[in-house]
Design a protein that fits this description.
single chain; 749 residues; alpha+beta; Beta-galactosidase, Chain A, domain 5; 9-stranded antiparallel sheet; 8-stranded mixed sheet; 16 helices; 27% helix
Length: 749
């Protein structure tokens, strides 16, 4: 049977989906297909399942692989099916806490334990004891469960294991599966255990909680801990001293002095749940029988889902053919989300920590301030006001209880300025400058900080000498990065210019002074610090000597208005293989610097990167129009997500990292979100409410879409392909442009 062809529909389909060549002005132009649906916001896929990773893929040690739910965290014990370690529920912070379950089989008089990591550790440290691989068959050695698989998701750890032994003709054989979560409402950790009896007779077990810690001491910043009594075990379920008590409870109803009775029928599976409850000493101990643990675990799961959903609803989504880029974007969001603490005993709520260290630092937060201005502008505003209260020229670390640490980074005032500008640009809330902190407005404080910085550190030539001690600059282990540091001076000039601009808008006559300081500083930098032969700035010491340090810190000046076009070009030229570029991102000090390059000092000293820096540099390069180099750096960073479920503070540029890192999580990962949105997709919001969009296409992106960017009352989508890009405002096509052009959108309330 012949079929009639509906040619109008066929032609329309070809036009819509394949594109067409139109002759315009005598030239053939390729017109990209138009998809009516692409203007709509696409929900960001940010779920526990989409972020999950097999344990074998994760390049972090067990103590670095944590579960977190806004209130506290706990880490995995590798080689174990039930083992956990390292509790942190401030002020309860116990680094060497260990927990696992054991099962006593009364019929066969066998204690089945989960202590393989303890045996390994003892053997490595002392050379004594049974060999771990000889367990379960070496006479006199412990009987242990063997772990088989592990899988990590945000606030969920799934593990499986096995035990299979014959005792005098009687088999004890079972499979074990566990789920671990952290509560989002209480200081509790939950462990669900599923035992599958493989034999034809019931298993009669006593489930025994095993806890240990060398000491139990409350950790309250700037507060002396007081006398701590030795750790004791007043019962099989509780470990305690005069400061902290930790009790394990279960939904198994029957218990003895040793543990809980648990029967697993023949060829059946049975589930029991346990909770580790943390308390200050002296509180009423929880009941050992907790029949509602299934509901508590479910609420913990829902709390995690709610956190992820909240982030997904407040941040743009992206969709590209480069799955590694999509994954980096999502894991950078997760990383920032996992620095968000919500505890009533914290100085501010929410509290964005630097990472797994529960302090907040303006410098680190500034790497995520564009993202936070979209995700949580109120939270970012609170953080900024807290930094100002702590003192921009005196304190850089603000611990969770707000007690200042009296340690200062030179970068702090410049970081606070960046946060303030990002907040105002995204929100339009210029009135924050008139908010008061300790009796002064934010504007008055920022101006006074600039004046004090100049009074303390300015030389007659206008350059700022911040003194000796590289630690307050970059914490590197070689000298040469002290006194008149070019990067810090350039940031100071930009700081002065911003204060001057605010002064002029407020008709404050002191603006002229800040303009003069900025001009003097820039002039002296060019005359005394710029080395035109090598295309780099040097650092000046009081004796007049110049010290060359090839630190990528200098790239903070890209787009600052401080560099000439030639200086910018020369500095960027060093972003090359064998210098700053490595397989997994960047070296913090160029490999050509044989004086200062340090393999082990990863974040600022040479061998790798502080993970916020290459992503920030990529964003800056995109803004400057150097999109190929920006993509090259960004693509190197996408390799991180093959090994990390969240982004650490530092990653080695040659190998991608080691299992032990200084800090396995960093808020600076937000710079990855920013590199994608404000770099790759070219979102350039302005303080006046206008928006410029100039994306940079790369062939590996395929058909790429960013949707859900909310700015000054409107919702924006950007779609790009090899031919063109399209901008949608509130779901309607606003403009179509060839790649390489830009779209200007004026502010309309």
């Amino acid at each position: 049977m012949s079929r009639r062809v509906n040619w109008p529909i066929v032609i329309a389909a070809i036009f819509c989906f394949m594109g067409t060549a139109l002759c315009v002005g005598g030239r053939a132009q390729v017109v990209a297909p138009f998809f009516p649906m692409e203007g709509r916001s696409i929900p960001l896929k940010l779920t526990s399942e989409s972020l999950g990773m097999p344990r074998a893929q994760i390049r972090l040690s067990g103590r670095m692989l944590f579960l977190f739910n806004g209130r506290g965290m706990v880490s995995l014990r590798d080689k174990s099916v039930t083992g956990l370690q390292n509790l942190n529920f401030p002020p309860i912070d116990i680094l060497n806490y260990h927990f696992q379950l054991a099962f006593w089989d009364a019929k066969d008089k066998v204690l089945i334990q989960d202590i393989v990591p303890d045996v390994y550790q003892h053997k490595v440290l002392t050379g004594k004891g049974p060999h771990p691989l000889g367990l379960n068959f070496t006479p006199g050695a412990p009987y242990v469960m063997l772990w088989q698989r592990a899988y990590w998701e945000p606030n969920l750890l799934l593990r499986s294991g096995t035990f299979d032994k014959e005792f005098g003709g009687h088999w004890v054989s079972f499979g074990v599966e566990t789920k671990t979560r952290v509560s989002g409402e209480a200081d509790e950790i939950y462990l669900e255990v599923r035992l599958k009896n493989r034999r034809a007779t019931p298993l009669q077990f006593t489930a025994i909680p095993q806890q240990s810690a060398p000491s139990l001491t409350l950790d309250i910043p700037d507060v002396k801990p007081g006398f701590s009594t030795p750790v004791s075990h007043p019962s099989a379920f509780t470990m305690a001293n005069n400061q902290i008590q930790i009790t394990v409870v279960s939904d198994l109803p029957d218990h003895t002095e040793r543990g809980w009775h648990w029967e697993i029928p023949a060829h059946k599976a049975s589930i029991a749940r346990f909770a580790i409850s943390l308390q200050r000493a002296g509180q009423r101990l929880p009941d050992l029988y907790a029949p509602d643990l299934a509901q508590r675990m479910n609420r913990a799961a829902l709390a995690t889902q709610a956190r992820l959903r909240w982030a997904a609803e407040n941040l743009p989504s992206i969709s590209t053919a480069d799955q590694a880029l999509n994954d980096l974007y999502a894991r950078c969001i997760l990383s920032v989300l996992d620095t968000r603490w919500e505890r009533k005993n914290f100085v501010i709520q929410p509290f964005y920590s630097v990472g797994t260290w529960v302090s907040t630092i303006a410098w680190d937060t500034s790497y995520a301030s564009e993202m936070l201005a979209m995700l949580d502008p109120k939270g970012l505003r609170q953080a900024l006001l807290e930094y100002i209260h702590a003192g921009l020229l005196t304190n850089s670390w603000v611990p969770w209880n707000g007690h200042q640490a009296h340690y200062w980074y030179v970068q702090t005032p410049f970081a606070a300025m960046r946060i303030l500008r990002d907040y105002i640009t995204q929100t339009g809330d210029i009135h924050i400058l008139d908010d008061k902190v300790d009796g002064s407005t934010v504007f008055e404080t920022m101006k006074r900080v600039g004046e004090e910085m100049h009074r303390r550190y300015a030389r007659p030539d206008g350059l700022l000498d911040f003194g000796a001690g590289s630690r307050k600059f970059l914490e590197i282990r070689t000298d040469g990065y002290q006194h008149v540091v070019a990067a810090a001076n350039g940031l100071a000039a930009a700081y002065f210019r911003q204060i001057a601009a605010w002064c002029h808008s407020r008709r404050d006559p002191e603006g002229a002074q800040f303009d003069r300081w900025a001009a003097e500083l820039q002039k002296s930098m060019n005359e005394k610090l710029w080395n035109s032969q090598i295309g780099w700035f040097e650092n000046l010491y009081p004796d007049g000597s110049l010290h060359l340090v090839w630190s990528y810190h200098l790239y903070d000046l890209l787009g600052s208005g401080i560099l000439t076009a030639e200086q910018q070009r020369r500095i960027i030229s060093h972003l090359a293989e064998g210098q700053f570029l490595g397989p997994y991102g960047m070296y913090s000090i160029s490999k050509t610097d044989h004086v200062h390059w340090d393999l082990e000092d990863v974040d600022w000293g040479g061998g790798g990167q502080y993970t916020g820096m290459p992503l920030r540099i990529a964003e800056s390069l995109y803004r400057l129009g150097d999109s190929e180099l920006a993509w090259d750096i960004l693509a190197r960073c996408t390799r991180w997500t093959k090994s990390y479920p969240y982004i650490p503070q530092e990653i080695f540029a040659d190998s991608g990292g080691y299992p032990e890192v200084e800090m396995p999580l960093e808020i600076a990962a937000g710079s990855g979100v920013q590199a994608v949105l404000f770099g790759l997709f070219g979102l350039h919001p302005h303080v006046d409410g206008s928006l410029e969009i100039s994306p940079s296409y790369h062939h590996e992106l395929g058909d790429a879409v960013m949707s859900g960017y909310r700015f000054r009352g409107h919702d924006y989508t950007v779609a790009m392909d090899p031919w063109e890009f399209r901008v949608y405002q509130d779901g309607k096509l606003f403009a179509r442009r060839p790649d390489g052009e830009s779209v200007e959108i004026p502010y309309r309330p």
